[in-house]
Design brief:
The chain is globular, with a radius of gyration of 18 Å. It has three helices and 19 strands. The strands form four sheets. A six-stranded antiparallel sheet has the order 5-6-3-10-13-8, with no helix packed on it. By secondary structure, it is mainly β.
């Protein structure tokens, strides 16, 4: 399978070129267009419990749609909810990737998608919580809000990143989810919430815009006009 991107870095679209019988798993609602003859099936990826974790606890869709090409092959165009960049990531047997909720867009059939617990953020304040672990082998597409920056970490090197700016990182990277400042009062005063302490080796990817801040601004604007 080949995956091409266009209109990046601001309004990325990914086109998956499928051979005969090839399949791609896609976030529900991400399909923009496809060639004739493509078959689709929506189901809960990984079973009921994992599907419910993504839908109720992790902010991900309950259903993943699988698109399968006919014998002559075909293509499918994919677009994310928010404006931003796209990154095609190679998932290999040597290591997988952990993707923040809402940033996984699609992956080849050989990529295994599971939920991974990252902390209590989703239960208190809407950050952190369940993330997606991509294992197996194949290509995966991650979508950002804003641009994407890739930072390599050496073994033992640690960096602190706001939880809303995390896009993805190699599963060789270890992490802890912590309060940005001491106690709830200090966190509120600083305007910061939860942060990831990420320690290498491995690559991390961050997005330059913050979806949580966007939602907070929208809610403020709506409230000021009531």
């Amino acid at each position: 399978m080949e995956i091409e991107t266009r209109h990046t870095p601001s309004f990325g679209v990914a086109r998956a070129l499928l051979g005969g019988g090839e399949a791609i798993k896609v976030e529900a609602g991400a399909m923009m267009a496809h060639s004739p003859g493509i078959e689709l099936e929506a189901k809960m990826e990984g079973g009921l419990l994992k599907g419910l974790k993504r839908s109720v606890l992790g902010g991900e869709s309950l259903f993943v749609t699988t698109f399968t090409a006919p014998a002559e092959g075909g293509w499918i165009d994919l677009a994310a909810k928010l404006p931003g960049d796209l990154r095609v990531i190679d998932v290999a047997a040597s290591h997988g990737w952990i993707v923040e909720r809402g940033n996984w867009l699609a992956s080849e059939a050989g990529v295994e998608i599971e939920t991974k617990w990252s902390g209590f953020g989703s239960l208190f304040g809407g950050e952190g919580g369940f993330m997606i672990h991509a294992g197996g082998a194949g290509k995966m597409v991650a979508a950002s809000y804003g641009a994407i920056e890739t930072w390599p970490l050496e073994a033992g090197q640690t960096i602190v990143v706001d939880s809303s700016h995390i896009l993805a990182f190699a599963d060789t990277v270890t992490f802890e989810l912590k309060k940005a400042a001491g106690g709830l009062v200090q966190s509120a005063k600083s305007g910061e919430g939860l942060v990831f302490h990420l320690t290498g080796p491995g690559e991390i990817m961050v997005q330059t815009r913050n979806q949580a801040q966007l939602l907070a601004w929208i809610n403020t604007e709506i409230g000021s006009r009531e």
